[in-house]
């Protein structure tokens, strides 16, 4: 947006830009509702290729004609299963076998030893993919509801997957609607205008539509994998970050309308002032997210590009479509509080922040010492965080059918029934491996897989041999998604790996969880330092200094640790969650640090601009006074949009939404409003070391220029 243009030419350019984007929006719009068509939620496919569970899964393909995911239909009557119950379960079993996607014939119902339950194992063809949800719904329809004291539930891996698919199916509708409503309400409060809210909301919607097109085709062509979690985060991230960028640009535009008569001239100046900070902010988030490509988990590698595409699309739209809309809206867009070309100091519109800046100037050192100490105190809550693999009963915020069924299985059967650990070993060592496995604590039973298709296993049936390998099934005593089951898997692996000549490999549902947790720990240790280094480089280039980036990163890391400490207390004592998933710390770090540093970028880029004109300490106070309101509004918007994740009844997304909301509010209210300005004011010009700006006069009225 450079050069002098007449009002007519400027208006024509703005009209053409808006019309061009509206055409793009018309083409891209439908894709936002089609992302669910290319999403996958198969956790096993996200494991690294060298994981033991992945190797076991590859070997399993040779032992079955078609790979399957089991659904477990359980019938329970506390007073004891009756003959009528047995007849009902047997009739249901026949009908289950006739459902498209079920691999029949099915074995008869398995009674529990206490006589209070029956269990039917229904293998569903893995080729069904996302359609497994439809198959499970048909099974639930056949089984019917509870009747005359007999409860019926469909659980097992297939039941769990169906419930997850149903949850993620809500992303296209309810989550998007809640996000839009949240952003709309906050914009109305911030702008107190019946018109202005429409501009950032239109631009954010356009950003989401543009991102959806790219994500759809990348996922459709297997360039990336899209899962429900990434889809949900994409929605709130685009609307949250997009509204943030819009607030920053609109605030700067309002400022310049006081200095320029024509909206085009005001927008040119505003764009030049705000664009570097917005681009640096977006680049920080994009590069941080792309660091997830270093992950060994395909699910993490999927989230990085998906979210990065969303931010890239948002940057393009907010720096082109939104400015054109604002130019066309002119001063009328701000009605009834239209800014006049009166050369007013923008700080006069931010009285409360001018007073906060004055307080920081008078008490700089005590302010940053007290705020840093308060954040450090919150980090003590980390002892309550409890990183674990969430069990099935802890995965949802409500009680789903698969959760209820798993509880029935745990009451009446070895809890690992239906989801056994699988052991693959060389044929000559199979008996020794079975003996050793049977002796592992937490293993209830071990049996070889034979060539039988259905019916109860024959005691002396020979094991099936494929390429010299034998498959054993180890039924665990604990539920397959419990800590006890994971300990059993680790002990089982140690035991069977010691058998000479066995070349044993342990897999199965629980093993997938174990390997996923290990990969998450590895990713956290690798990716976090890389993200910090990348952000440091971007900050150094933007601020042309080395000391300021180090201090800014230190404050954001302190804020991140304080957020985790505070959230640990909230999760445990408010929500009564059992802990956080192993992937949570990494996701929370990437989003909190990448997004949290945004507000420091917005603040310090303006502080540097003002420092060149006024001197460092005066620049700190001017930057805080001018940006305080808009950055706080942006933080509230982002916190509120991520809070929208709470509408999904999935604990891991609720925890992530709460963590980002709490962390962003800490960043905007404490770190950016008090800690960073007070620390910068106390240090003075040295904050810009080693640039020339650090060598200007060291008083409250320093003035100078920096290269």
List keywords for this structure.
707 residues, alpha+beta, five-stranded antiparallel sheet, four-stranded antiparallel sheet, 22 helices, 60% helix
How would you describe this protein?
- The chain crosses the membrane at residues 12-31, 167-190, 197-219, 231-253, 274-297, 303-328, 367-387, 526-543, 550-574, 586-607, 619-640, 646-666.
- With 707 residues, the chain is an alpha+beta fold.
- Helices cover 60% and strands 8% of the residues.
- It is built from 22 helices and 11 strands.
- It has helices at 7-28, 52-60, 83-96, 132-143, 156-168, 171-191, 198-220, 228-257, 263-290, 298-318, 321-329, 351-362, 364-378, 392-395, 401-412, 430-438, 483-497, 509-543, 547-573, 584-614, 616-643, 651-683; strands at residues 68-76, 110-111, 117-125, 151-155, 387-388, 421-426, 443-448, 465-466, 469-476, 505-507, 580-581.
- The strands form 3 sheets. Strands 6, 7, 8, 9 and 10 form a 5-stranded antiparallel sheet that branches. A 4-stranded antiparallel sheet has the order 2-3-1-4.
- A hairpin with a 2-residue loop joins strand 8 and strand 9.
- Helix 12 (351-362) crosses helix 22 and helix 17 crosses helix 18 (509-543).
- It is elongated.
């Amino acid at each position: 947006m450079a050069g002098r243009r007449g009002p007519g030419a400027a208006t024509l350019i703005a009209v053409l830009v808006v019309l061009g984007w509206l055409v793009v929006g018309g083409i891209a719009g439908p894709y936002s509702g089609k992302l669910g068509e290319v999403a996958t939620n198969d956790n096993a496919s996200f494991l690294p290729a060298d994981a033991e569970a992945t190797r076991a899964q590859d070997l399993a393909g040779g032992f079955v004609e078609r790979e399957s995911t089991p659904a477990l239909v359980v019938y329970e009557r506390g007073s004891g299963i009756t003959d009528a119950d047995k007849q009902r379960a047997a009739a249901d079993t026949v009908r289950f076998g006739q459902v498209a996607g079920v691999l029949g014939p099915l074995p008869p119902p398995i009674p529990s030893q206490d006589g209070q339950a029956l269990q039917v194992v229904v293998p569903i063809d893995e080729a069904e993919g996302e359609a497994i949800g439809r198959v499970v719904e048909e099974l639930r329809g056949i089984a019917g509801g509870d009747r005359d004291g007999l409860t019926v539930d469909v659980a097992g891996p297939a039941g769990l997957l169906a419930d997850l698919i149903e949850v993620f199916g809500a992303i296209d509708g309810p989550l998007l609607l809640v996000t839009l409503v949240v952003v709309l309400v906050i914009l109305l409060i911030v702008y107190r205008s019946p018109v202005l809210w429409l501009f950032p909301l239109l631009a954010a919607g356009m950003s989401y539509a543009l991102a959806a097109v790219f994500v759809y085709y990348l996922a459709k062509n297997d360039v990336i994998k899209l899962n429900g979690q990434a889809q949900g985060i994409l929605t709130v991230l685009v609307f949250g970050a997009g509204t943030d960028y819009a607030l920053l640009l609109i605030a700067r535009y309002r400022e310049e309308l006081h200095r320029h008569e024509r909206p085009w001239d005001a927008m040119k100046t505003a764009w030049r002032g705000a664009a570097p900070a917005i681009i640096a902010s977006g680049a920080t988030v994009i590069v941080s997210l792309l660091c997830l490509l270093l992950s060994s988990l395909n699910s993490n590698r999927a989230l990085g590009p998906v979210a990065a595409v969303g931010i890239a699309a948002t940057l393009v739209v907010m720096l082109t479509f939104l400015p054109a809309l604002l130019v066309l809206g002119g001063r009328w867009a701000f009605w009834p509080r239209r800014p006049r070309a009166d050369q007013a100091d923008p700080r006069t519109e931010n009285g409360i922040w001018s007073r906060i800046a004055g307080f920081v100037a008078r008490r700089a050192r005590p302010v940053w010492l007290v705020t840093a100490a308060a954040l450090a105190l919150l980090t003590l809550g980390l002892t309550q965080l409890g990183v674990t693999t969430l069990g099935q009963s802890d995965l949802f915020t409500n009680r789903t059918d698969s959760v209820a069924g798993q509880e029935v299985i745990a009451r009446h059967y070895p809890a690992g029934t239906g989801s056994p650990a699988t052991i693959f070993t060389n044929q000559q060592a199979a008996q020794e491996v079975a003996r050793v496995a049977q002796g592992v604590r937490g293993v209830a039973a071990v049996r070889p897989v034979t060539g039988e298709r259905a019916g109860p296993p024959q005691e002396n049936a020979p094991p099936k041999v494929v390429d010299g390998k034998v498959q054993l099934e180890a039924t665990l005593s604990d539920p397959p998604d419990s800590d006890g089951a994971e300990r059993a898997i680790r002990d089982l692996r140690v035991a069977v790996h010691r058998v000479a000549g066995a070349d044993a490999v342990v897999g199965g549902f629980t093993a997938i969880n174990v390997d996923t947790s290990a990969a998450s720990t590895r990713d956290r240790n690798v990716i976090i330092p890389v993200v910090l280094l990348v952000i440091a480089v971007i900050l150094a280039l933007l601020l042309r200094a080395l000391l300021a980036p180090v201090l800014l990163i230190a404050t954001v890391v302190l804020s991140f640790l304080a957020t985790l400490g505070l959230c640990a207390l909230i999760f445990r004592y408010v929500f009564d969650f059992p802990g956080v998933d192993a992937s949570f710390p990494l996701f929370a770090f990437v989003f909190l640090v990448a997004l949290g540093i945004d507000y420091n970028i917005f603040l310090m880029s303006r502080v540097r601009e003002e420092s060149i004109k006024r001197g460092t300490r005066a620049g700190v106070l001017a930057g805080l006074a001018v940006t305080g309101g808009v950055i706080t509004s942006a933080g509230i918007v982002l916190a509120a949009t991520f809070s929208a994740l709470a509408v999904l009844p999935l604990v891991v997304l609720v925890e992530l939404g709460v963590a980002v909301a709490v962390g962003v509010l800490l960043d905007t209210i404490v770190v950016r409003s008090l800690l960073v300005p007070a620390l910068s004011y106390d240090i003075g010009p040295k904050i810009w070391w080693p640039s020339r700006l650090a060598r200007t006069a060291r008083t409250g009225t320093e003035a100078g220029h920096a290269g």
